[in-house]
Specification:
Organism: Bradyrhizobium barranii subsp. barranii
Structural class: alpha+beta
Largest sheet: 6 strands, antiparallel
Protein name: S8 family serine peptidase
InterPro entries: Peptidase_S8/S53_dom, Peptidase_S8/S53_dom_sf
CATH class of the largest domain: Alpha Beta
Radius of gyration: 23 Å
GO molecular function: serine-type endopeptidase activity
GO biological process, one term: proteolysis
Strand order of the largest sheet: 1-2-14-22-18-20
Shape: globular
Distance between the termini: 21 Å
């Protein structure tokens, strides 16, 4: 896939969006065998040597104390940086038996949060390293597996099995499992049936529905193929099978060169590979951005969408998203714009708090979306989808866990807000920013019901994503989007240096026409002054 062109454009308060446009093509799909392309060519990114690294703590590892795993994680990351200094993605497994989960931050999950933001032991003291120069890291962590029960009568709801430590880490990208594998070809099991239907949660995958809303992040953020399980006709026995699993290379090449591979470890491995591919394709992307791009590329399967659209209750949808996250990611969607789908990417640094005149919130960032009004008027009632993803890394409070208060665990938080219907820009800025109110708070604007999850879903965690769907004309005169800070322990610490720290974030906005025949790509590209490439016919 060849990058046709890129451009940086200043919008709002001189904050850049990076406008991506490239030809979109569909690759050939291999159902259950993922082949790693090892061909080298001058124009091909070499993600194998530079970016991807793999770390797994197996269930039989003798690590009875979580602090030991913290040390192991730190030493591993340090060692990998020495041998692979460009590495930017890690796939972390887990050890069974350490049942920290949900709103409770363990020493292991906090260590991952610290390593992600560049404040791991060995990263340098505060006075030695500038915040902007700290090495950030992306961890791709599996959500954990349900018990491999063989007695079908004892199968319990997957919601009874919370996601395992350290997948509650706020800065990690947690991957659960879904499945499309429903056809059984194993000899002797022809009359057995798949437990999960196409496009639903894999029977192996854990969820976070039991976690308290408001103090725990949405996990998993993504689901990827993790295999299925089968049940016998009498519905008394269940088992994993080769035809319901993926394939990987075996440890004994002569005896079994290819072996079945399933559950959330398989899903996380695919997620880590995708992160490495994106980083290799876009070396200028920060780890925060790679995570945002992956989540933004995700789409809910038809089965997931049917479940989400079966209710208008935002609270009911929260529980659903805590099962299958924001959907299934796609590398092709992550790196491409199409005629009916345009992606805008911003990377920026923000100072959430300021110490001058007392400890207070500092600035909001505003973005003007390059959506031509005449295009929206022309589309009128044509339905469009606007998706927004905000990704940043928090610094965990070393002395407190998030079950006390999310704002006491996080160093800071960020939120996005969008101009509401018939809301002037000045009133919007006053609503989201106390510094612009002149002592008067504007009347509350009614919440926009067209968001899939709504603003109450954004309460904890360091990644926030939502989808707005409605008539194109409803976006008219609503081209302003804001990134604003919320409270965290940076604001209240005694040190002024800590209060004045800065944080990076990645913001991604896409606009997509639900009708694939509608071209929104050309009007948006024209509005920001980019040339339209003409197709060139090459005689054969």
């Amino acid at each position: 896939m060849k990058d046709l062109s890129t451009a940086r454009i200043a919008m709002g308060a001189d904050l850049p969006f990076r406008f991506r446009y490239r030809a979109l093509r569909q690759p050939r799909l291999f159902r259950d065998l993922n082949l790693l392309d090892t061909e080298e060519s001058p124009g091909r990114p070499d993600h194998r040597r530079r970016y991807q690294l793999f770390f797994r703590v197996g269930q039989n590892v003798a690590c009875p104390v979580a602090a030991t795993l913290t040390t192991v994680t730190s030493r591993f990351v340090t060692a990998m940086q020495k041998t692979r200094p460009r590495s930017g993605a890690a796939n972390s497994g887990r050890r069974a038996g350490l049942l920290f989960h949900g709103a409770t931050a363990s020493s292991w999950s906090a260590a991952i949060d610290q390593a992600a933001i560049g404040r791991m032991l060995g990263d340098g003291d505060d006075e030695d390293v500038e915040e902007a120069d700290r090495r950030k890291r992306l961890f791709v962590v599996s959500a954990g597996n349900t018990p491999p029960e063989q007695d079908y009568t004892r199968i319990r709801s997957q919601d009874d099995f919370p996601i395992e430590d350290p997948a509650q880490a706020w800065n990690a990208l947690t991957v659960g499992g879904c499945t499309d594998l429903v056809e059984i070809h194993d000899e002797g099991f022809e009359d057995w049936t798949a437990m999960a239907s196409v496009g639903t949660l894999s029977p192996h995958s854990r969820t976070s529905t039991a976690w308290r809303q408001g103090v725990s992040p949405i996990k998993p953020e993504l689901v990827i193929e993790a295999g299925n399980r089968a049940v016998n006709p009498a519905q008394t026995a269940c088992a994993s099978m080769g035809s319901l699993s993926l394939l990987t290379t075996g440890s004994n090449v002569t005896a079994a060169s290819l072996v079945p591979f399933d559950a959330t470890s398989a899903a996380a491995a695919q997620g880590a590979r995708m992160a490495a591919q994106i980083q290799a394709q876009h070396p200028e992307y920060w780890p925060e951005t790679v995570r945002a791009v992956m989540v933004h590329s995700a789409q809910w399967t038809p089965a997931m969408l049917q479940e989400l659209n079966s209710t208008q209750s935002k609270r009911a949808r929260y529980a659903m998203v805590r099962r299958f996250g924001y959907g299934v990611p796609s590398y092709e969607r992550a790196v491409a714009s199409a005629t009916n789908h345009v992606a805008l990417v911003a990377q920026a640094e923000i100072q959430p708090f300021a110490s001058h005149g007392g400890r207070k919130f500092n600035k909001c960032h505003y973005y003007s979306l390059p959506i031509p009004p005449d295009m929206l008027e022309t589309l009128n009632n044509e339905r469009v989808e606007m998706k927004v993803t905000l990704s940043y890394f928090i610094e965990p409070n070393p002395g407190l866990s998030a079950n006390v208060d999310a704002q006491r665990y996080q160093s800071h938080g960020l939120r996005f807000d969008h101009q509401r219907r018939r809301e002037p820009v000045a009133r919007f800025r006053q609503r989201v920013n106390a510094a612009e109110r002149n002592g008067r708070r504007p009347a509350n604007e009614p919440a926009d019901p067209n968001w899939m999850l709504g603003e109450d879903s954004v309460s904890a965690g360091s990644l926030h994503c939502d989808v707005w769907t409605g008539p194109a004309v409803d976006l008219l005169d609503r081209d302003t989007l804001c990134v604003k800070p919320v409270n965290g322990w940076w604001r209240n610490r005694a040190s002024l240096e800590i209060c004045n720290r800065k944080s990076r974030y990645a913001l991604i906005v896409t606009l997509r026409a639900l009708n694939p025949d509608v071209n929104i790509y050309t009007p948006i590209r024209t509005s920001i002054g980019l040339p339209i490439p003409l197709p060139i016919e090459i005689p054969v």
